[in-house]
Automatic annotation (TrEMBL):
Belongs to the ArsC family. SUPFAM superfamilies: Thioredoxin-like (SSF52833). This is Arsenate reductase. It comes from Pseudomonas savastanoi pv. glycinea. It comes from the Bacteria. InterPro entries: Arsenate_reductase-like, Thioredoxin-like_sf.
Amino acid sequence: MQMTDLTLYHNPRCSKSRGALELLQARGLTPDIVLYLETPPDAERLRDLLGKLGITARQLLRTGEDDYKQLNLADPS
């Protein structure tokens, strides 16, 4: 089944991303794949995605990453 309104922002080097793609394909779904590291979403698309997810940009951050800690991104100021 082709489902063109299903988009996966994918990183083939990420095991969780590969797992998500495998789950979708196992269910017969073929998402549009965006290799977000090669083609990052622009600000408008990010706002749209955050609205659809019902979260803030801060909630999208990966808090366990070294960069998050080194850049002190937990500081709300």
